[in-house]
Amino acid sequence: MEHLTKEQVEEIKNFLIQWRNQILxxxxxxxxxxxxxxxxxEIDRADTEAERLVTLRNLDRDRKVLKKIEYSLAKxxxxxxxxxxxxxxxxxxxxxxxxxxxxxCIKCKEIEEENE
Length: 116
Fold this sequence. Notes:
This protein is mostly helical. It has helices at about 5-30, 40-80, 95-100, 105-115.
């Protein structure tokens, strides 16, 4: 993290914490929605089921993002944040600010995407 100033690290850390809190709050609100639906016709029930599936997909996506956020926060605490996990090069602040959970530099991310 030598290439990042304390202020830059603190800015990213605060953003990650706020992002995590926002996701947790939204998930809590989504979990408060009823899981069963009674009444209405088949079309109403189908619409409700489709909405529920979207909610569950979003919750699963959020769970994955939360893991990345927690991993990034742990790397900040360990002093290893901001280094590419493939080539160990420094990840520029601009990239980290745009994608705070990035763990690969642009070059290695492109290689990873080519191999998928």
